[in-house]
Amino acid sequence: MLDLTYAPPKPKVIAGAKHDWELVIGMEVHAQVASRAKLFSGASTQFGAEPNSNVSFVDAAMPGMLPVINDFCVEQAVRTGLGLKAQINLWSAFDRKNYFYPDLPQGYQISQLYHPLVGEGEILVDMEPGIARKVRIERIHMEQDAGKSIHDMDPNMSFVDLNRTGVALMEIVSRPDIRGPEEAAAYVTKLRQILRYLGTCDGNMQNGNLRADVNISVCRPGDYEKYMESQDFSHLGTRCEIKNMNSMRFIQQAIEHEARRQIAILEGGGEVVQETRLYDPDKGETRSMRSKEEAHDYRYFPDPDLLPLTIEQAWVDEIEANLPELPDEKKARFIRDYGVTEYDASVLTADLDLAAYFEDSVGAGDGKKTANWVINEVLGRANKAEVTAREIATPQANAEILAMVANDEISTKIAKDVLEIHIETGRAPAEIVETEGMKQVTDTGAIEAAVDQIIADNPAQVEKAKVNPKLAGWFVGQVMKATGGKANPKAVNEIVQARLEL
Amino acid sequence: MSIDLETAARVAKLARIRVSDDALPELAAEFNTILGFIEQLGEVDVEGVEPMTSVTPMRLKRREDVVTDGHQQDKVLANAPDAREGFFAVPKVVE
């Protein structure tokens, strides 16, 4: 648990033509379970394979084929539940959700409506240092993914690929605790971060690995507080669900558009109709998915092909004992052990590899200085080149450079030059400093000579400096320039002061 | 609960089974017989009785996370009325 105190963010307020409105948002995130084989068959889950090649007869719903559950997928879902501090249900069951669509050969999706594997949990959604929202998780259930339809290959036909059919999904359902578009994006970001830490979902939104359905309603200021107090939904407005969004940007835009659409209806004296909508990013609007209307009659019933899923507490305990350090804990530890700011800790723990990279870079050195170095120098350059920090500089190189700075062997300015050379050539920092003669000059004799030279060459400046001691800085700069930045600035400063008799 | 013709027609449509209008009354009557039987079952007091899912106690069978199947595009597509370039080809369905 993050042992920092935080305050909740202010809910987003949209000014209507008549009065102010607030947003209430709940999310259903479909996260693809990271596994080798599918949930109920032995076909591969690999993305980007030849169409219909990762398909077993179970996935294709050939008559007589029976589903057999993949134990590891269950383990991954349990791990996810534990990572979200959720209740794990030792007894859960699978149901059939019936609907017709060409990419769903069974004619039903195996899901868990009545008895989900995971119950109530929570996610702390960080907005900025000191500001965070605790979003309650209602449930996580396991289900099968559908196949993929491609509509643009032929004017009259749709093409169906069943490779994704039957891949395990976790549907992570939140309570309506999210209060604005930015919070919604931050929620998905944090959820994805936790899933990646846990290794239970790759979280690649472009590959459809993580998709979000967003439920949005609007209410008058004050109504949400009444709902929170009573948990009575009648205080909230009628919600619409926007399906299948796979980008943070679209999620935010869709929420904004949908909220304004609802506000316009309500202020015009109309009523919002509960329905499923689709966001069209090109037109910047949401529109009704009429096809989903009849499909809403899913006629759920317990799947007769599958016994209830029973798991043992000892197994759950074992998974829990082996959970990795999670983002909140890691962030708190970075703040505590390395003395970095909350903001820096958030940046450094954003992904697991960067966190490890930072810790390796610290070595025996100073945490705060290393954090500044990694964020400002290394990440700055890596982001510009659109690569990871590890791809441009090794953690050992960072540790070596920072150790040389700490020992006064090189100045911070030279340190950046060393980094540049390391990035370009991959050479070891100590060798670069040695070979390129970049060692800081701490030999006072050499610095004194350089100072004397500058003073001798610039008598007019010397006179000015005697009147205005601030001009001493100019002399320091000249000496640094003359020594190629290698002189120890502190020593230069002292000698300049002494020589100018300031 | 009684099933009228409209409900019978809707259930048939959801199941994608074509039922002609003159067959609907009989279908509705059959539904009503089935539901009547279920209602009769509902009279049995099962308070506190756990639903039985198998005759002998059994644990749900599991599989390991190993790829053991697939790579049979030709077989998967063999029964398709139309298949092109490795895909099932179906009448256009657009949102």
Describe it.
The complex is a heterodimer of chains A (502) and B (95). With 502 residues, chain A is an alpha+beta fold. Chain A folds into 3 domains: 17-316, no CATH class; 325-435; 444-499, Arc Repressor Mutant, subunit A (Orthogonal Bundle). Chain A has helices at residues 71-83, 181-198, 223-230, 248-267, 291-295, 313-321, 327-338, 342-348, 352-362, 367-385, 389-392, 395-406, 412-425, 429-435, 444-457, 459-467, 472-482, 489-499, and strands at residues 13-15, 20-32, 69-70, 91-92, 95-98, 108-111, 121-128, 131-144, 148-150, 157-161, 168-174, 210-219, 240-245, 276-280, 285-288, 301-302, 309-310. In chain A, strands 1, 2, 7, 8, 11, 12, 13, 14 and 15 form a 9-stranded mixed sheet that branches. In chain A, helix 2 packs antiparallel against helix 4, helix 15 (444-457) crosses helix 18 and helix 17 packs across helix 18. With 95 residues, chain B is an alpha+beta fold. Chain B has a domain at 5-42. The two termini of chain B are 35 Å apart. The mean pLDDT of chain B is 92. Chains A and B meet through strand 3, helix 1, strand 10 and strand 17 of A and helix 1, strand 1, helix 3 and strand 3 of B.
**Which sequence of SSEs, written as H and E, runs from N to C of chain B?**
HHEHEE
| Secondary structural class of chain B | alpha+beta
How would you sum up the global shape of chain A? elongated
- Give a short account of the largest sheet of chain A: 9 strands, mixed
Task: Estimate percent helicity of chain A.
Answer: 40-55%
* Number of E-type strands of chain A: 17
The largest sheet of chain B is: 2 strands, antiparallel
The poorly predicted ranges of chain B are none
Q: Determine the mean pLDDT of chain A.
A: 93
- Side-by-side strand order of the widest sheet of chain B: 2-3
Q: Helix count of chain B, per DSSP? A: 3
Which spans of chain A have pLDDT < 50 for at least 5 consecutive residues?
A: none
What portion of the residues of chain B fall into strands of 2 or more residues? 5-15%
User: What number of domains of chain A?
Assistant: 3
> How many beta-strand elements of chain B?
3
- Which range best describes the helical content of chain B: under 10%, 10-25%, 25-40%, 40-55%, 55-70% or over 70%? 25-40%
Instruction: Report the β-strand fraction of chain A as a percent range.
Output: 15-25%
The oligomeric state of the chains shown is heterodimer
